[in-house]
Amino acid sequence: KQEVTQIPAALSVPEGENLVLNCSFTDSAIYNLQWFRQDPGKGLTSLLLIQSSQREQTSGRLNASLDKSSGRSTLYIAASQPGDSATYLCAVGGNTPLVFGKGTRLSVIA
Amino acid sequence: GAGVSQSPRYKVAKRGQDVALRCDPISGHVSLFWYQQALGQGPEFLTYFQNEAQLDKSGLPSDRFFAERPEGSVSTLKIQRTQQEDSAVYLCATRGTGVTTNEKLFFGSGTQLSVL
């Protein structure tokens, strides 16, 4: 059974700092990996999707990498802003339903 | 519609009551998923539809949970004889017009269910 772990569970950084969120998964036979953002009381917003054949995806200040063989992904956020404060969730899957981690709760302090 | 719409936004039920949660998908989206998210946890898969066919219901926690999508568009998640452990946010998500696997999943804002 696929298990997804996210470290750290919570992170607080000053505005402007670059930061890395980590995600690991136990079964490397995945089709893709998605990073989501969840604001309090809201649904999930898809940030980046990396196909299993890809190594990374970039969108603005966000860069996600995937190392399928080692079962790891990282989400890099450059020049963090207070508006980046949210919970970031990693999910793996494809033909099977997405399996989610518990998320990293990020606070960016102005 | 512009996005996935869920209603009601909040639902308070007394233990033992039946509840029905609605999901309006993005127009034309073939795949529809229901997830349950407990406080401080990631979403947990409940069930999956492709058009009107329920292809996977392995995540439904008990036979008190029932989902349908009779015309391949709107879906309803019904919980009978609610229990306190059913308290959670119920999220609906839909995916593209095809069955390819590398498409983003779009989520609604969820229904927060509180069972007293």
Helix and strand topology:
The complex is a heterodimer of chains A (110) and B (116).
Chain A: E1 4-7, E2 10-14, E3 19-25, E4 32-38, E5 44-51, E6 56-59, E7 62-67, E8 72-77, E9 86-93, E10 99-100, E11 104-109
Parallel strand pairs in A: 2-11
Antiparallel strand pairs in A: 1-3, 3-8, 4-5, 4-9, 6-7, 7-8, 9-10, 9-11
Chain B: E1 5-7, E2 10-13, E3 19-24, E4 31-37, E5 44-50, E6 53-56, E7 65-68, E8 75-79, E9 88-95, E10 105-107, E11 111-115
Parallel strand pairs in B: 2-11
Antiparallel strand pairs in B: 1-3, 3-8, 4-5, 4-9, 5-6, 7-8, 9-10, 9-11
Question: Descriptors for this entry?
Answer:
heterodimer, A: 110 residues, mainly beta, 6-stranded mixed sheet, 5-stranded antiparallel sheet, 57% strand, B: mainly beta, 4-stranded antiparallel sheet
Describe the structure.
The complex is a heterodimer of chains A (110) and B (116). Chain A has 110 residues and is an all-beta fold. Chain A has no helices and eleven strands. Chain A has strands spanning 4-7, 10-14, 19-25, 32-38, 44-51, 56-59, 62-67, 72-77, 86-93, 99-100, 104-109. In chain A, strands 2, 4, 5, 9, 10 and 11 form a six-stranded mixed β-sheet that branches. In chain A, strands 1-3-8-7-6 form a five-stranded antiparallel β-sheet, with no helix packed on it. Chain A starts with a strand and ends with a strand. The mean pLDDT of chain A is 93. With 116 residues, chain B is mostly beta strands. In chain B, strands 2, 4, 5, 6, 9, 10 and 11 form a seven-stranded mixed β-sheet that branches. Chain B has a four-stranded antiparallel β-sheet with strand order 1-3-8-7, with no helix packed on it. The interface between A and B is medium-sized, with 25 and 26 residues.
